[in-house]
């Protein structure tokens, strides 16, 4: 269902992180293979064939991969237990298990494939040695071009850029989502589910509801209260309705959400009345009335006012449907217009909504009691629990804050932003490690060159810059490629974004600065260490 696209997104990000890790280890193995060139030459001179040398390096790669996979299974067990308790994953039909036959088989195959991915090139590179040239070099020291290692670093930077862009866009989207205007004030509002088990008639339900509301209002610290079927961010009904006097088929059966509210509910939730009036206790026993929101007023009465118009809802309940089937309709007179509210989910714009009076038509289903109070949560919970228990001793008391109801609708975006952020952080860390590793190795390879340059009068900064310039070019190229790929890749997550364009330039600029800063730090540390040595001592050692 709705979870599938998110899981597909996470799977793609896991693959990107795995590619970055593979490129990282491949770069480290290339460094190791270069450092072991003399060892491989000696083995080859003693009779080891190319296959034997390749098998040795691949065996080390498989060992690394299997150890990593084993540690990954342990971490995954902990992570799955932690994530399964979140609302977004609690909806899955089955609890994910790490130590499952399918999962373990997949992990073993993935470990072997990964070992081949990051191990085959270093193995082949290490097995190709020139015996005469290698054995002639003093002390086994070799100096090689950055070449493939720089390409791997550039690939890491490009992939990390894509992940950081995704994390930045989802974080900005979540910030926009949680900061949008709701149209009502959810703070200090507590909600309880209530039923009326002893009331078997409509009049009895109205009386029971009135007694409950009066009891809550009389409690100390309660500023407002009201009943509703379909509070914002909870359930609701919807369907077509009729407007008296409309004959045009295109507008004769408009569609809207239906909610039921008692007098005092709009005050409790802080929903402003924009025109006409609110429901009042005096509506009880009078001809049925209704209130619409501003979206309904604009959509169905453009350029005019809906107040005084009459509507019918044939599918609202059995009585109205029976009247409609019998050739008659129960007409509701619109007496007020209230402000639009975001009441389905964060990110969903307000739509046409019709409110009916609970004081006139009690609901057979359970209702929600909304209470506004400045009391401390513990004191309010104790007071409401006593009132609701006295009202119905057999009904369980379930109290929730309106803020929690709203936050629950953002659980999936919040979890998505958190996990994407963790993936991006891991990717950036791996990229920084890769840049540092290649920089440190390249600096170590050129220790003599740096010493000569400094001995001849070059400043430490200039001597090291000459050596590290190729690395900077690969990093810059990877950043450019990553930003270009991000323009395409972030378009694929458009459905997960709210209020943010996939090509949001502040996010792109921030990612470029972050990765550029990490690259500068990762190259500066080994360079600084290389310039601290005395060039005379370096040259004497050489």
Name its key features:
19 helices, alpha+beta, elongated, twelve-stranded mixed sheet, 542 residues, single chain, 12 strands
Radius of gyration: 34 Å
Strand content: 5-15%
Oligomerization category of the chains in this entry = single chain
**Main beta sheet, described?**
12 strands, mixed
Basic shape: elongated
Task: Please describe what this structure looks like.
Helix content is 58%, strand content 11%. It is of the alpha+beta class. Strands 1, 2, 3, 4, 5, 6, 7, 8, 9, 10, 11 and 12 form a twelve-stranded mixed beta sheet that branches. Helix 1 packs parallel to helix 15.
Secondary-structure topology with pairs:
Elements: H1 3-35, H2 37-45, H3 50-83, H4 87-90, H5 101-127, H6 131-136, H7 147-178, E1 189-194, H8 202-218, E2 222-229, E3 237-240, E4 242-243, H9 249-252, E5 255-261, H10 265-269, E6 273-276, E7 289-293, H11 294-300, E8 310-312, H12 318-325, E9 332-338, E10 353-357, E11 367-373, H13 377-391, E12 399-401, H14 402-409, H15 411-445, H16 447-455, H17 460-489, H18 505-531, H19 535-541
Parallel strand pairs: 5-10, 7-9
Antiparallel strand pairs: 1-11, 1-12, 2-5, 2-11, 3-5, 4-8, 6-9, 7-10, 8-9
Helix pairs in contact: 1-5, 1-7, 1-15, 3-5, 7-15, 7-17, 7-18, 15-17, 15-18, 16-17, 16-19, 17-18
What does this entry show, briefly?
The chain has 542 residues and is of the alpha+beta class.
């Amino acid at each position: 269902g709705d979870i599938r696209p998110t899981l597909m997104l996470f799977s793609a990000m896991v693959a990107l992180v795995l590619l970055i890790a593979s490129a990282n280890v491949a770069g480290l193995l290339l460094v190791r293979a270069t450092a072991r060139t003399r060892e491989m030459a000696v083995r080859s001179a003693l009779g080891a064939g190319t296959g034997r040398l390749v098998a040795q390096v691949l065996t080390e790669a498989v060992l690394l991969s299997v150890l990593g996979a084993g540690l990954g299974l342990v971490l995954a067990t902990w992570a799955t237990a932690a994530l399964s308790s979140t609302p977004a994953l609690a909806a899955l039909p089955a609890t994910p298990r790490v130590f499952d036959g399918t999962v373990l088989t997949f992990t073993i195959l993935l470990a072997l494939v990964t070992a081949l991915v990051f191990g085959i090139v270093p193995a082949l590179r290490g097995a190709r040695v020139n015996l005469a040239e290698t054995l002639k070099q003093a002390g086994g020291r070799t100096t090689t071009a950055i070449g493939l290692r720089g390409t791997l670093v550039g690939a890491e930077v490009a992939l990390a850029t894509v992940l950081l862009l995704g994390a930045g866009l989802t974080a900005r989207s979540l910030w926009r989502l949680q900061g949008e205007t709701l149209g009502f004030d959810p703070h200090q509002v507590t909600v309880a589910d209530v039923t009326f088990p002893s009331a078997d008639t409509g009049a009895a339900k109205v009386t029971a509801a009135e007694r409950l509301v009066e009891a809550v209002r009389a409690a100390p610290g309660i500023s407002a209260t009201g009943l509703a079927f379909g509070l914002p961010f909870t359930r609701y009904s919807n369907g077509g309705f009729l407007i008296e006097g409309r004959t045009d088929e295109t507008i004769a059966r408009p569609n809207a959400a239906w909610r039921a509210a008692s007098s005092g509910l709009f005050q409790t939730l802080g929903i402003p009345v924009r025109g006409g009036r609110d429901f009042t206790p005096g509506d009880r026993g009078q001809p049925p009335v209704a209130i619409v929101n501003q979206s309904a007023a604009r959509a169905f009465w453009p350029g005019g006012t809906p107040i005084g118009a009459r509507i019918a809802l044939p599918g609202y309940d059995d009585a109205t449907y029976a009247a409609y089937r019998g050739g008659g309709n129960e007409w509701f007179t619109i007496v007020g217009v209230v402000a639009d509210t975001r009441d389905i989910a964060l990110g969903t714009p307000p739509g046409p909504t019709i409110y009916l009076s609970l004081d006139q038509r009690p609901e057979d289903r359970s209702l929600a009691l909304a209470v506004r109070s400045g009391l401390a949560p513990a004191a309010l919970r104790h007071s409401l629990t006593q009132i609701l228990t006295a009202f119905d001793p057999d009904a369980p008391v379930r109290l929730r804050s309106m803020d929690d109801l709203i936050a629950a609708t953002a659980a999936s975006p919040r979890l998505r932003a958190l996990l994407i952020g963790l993936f991006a952080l891991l990717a950036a860390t791996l990229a920084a490690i890769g840049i540092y590793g290649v920089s440190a190795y390249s600096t170590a390879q050129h220790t003599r060159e740096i010493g000569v340059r400094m001995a001849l009068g070059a400043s430490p900064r200039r001597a090291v810059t000459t050596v590290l310039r190729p690395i900077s070019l690969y990093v810059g190229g990877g950043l450019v490629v990553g930003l270009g790929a991000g323009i395409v890749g972030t378009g694929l997550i458009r459905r997960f974004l709210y209020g943010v364009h996939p090509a949001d330039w502040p996010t792109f600029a921030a990612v470029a600065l972050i990765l550029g800063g990490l690259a500068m730090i990762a190259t500066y540390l080994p360079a600084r260490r290389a310039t601290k040595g005395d060039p005379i001592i370096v040259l004497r050692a050489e």
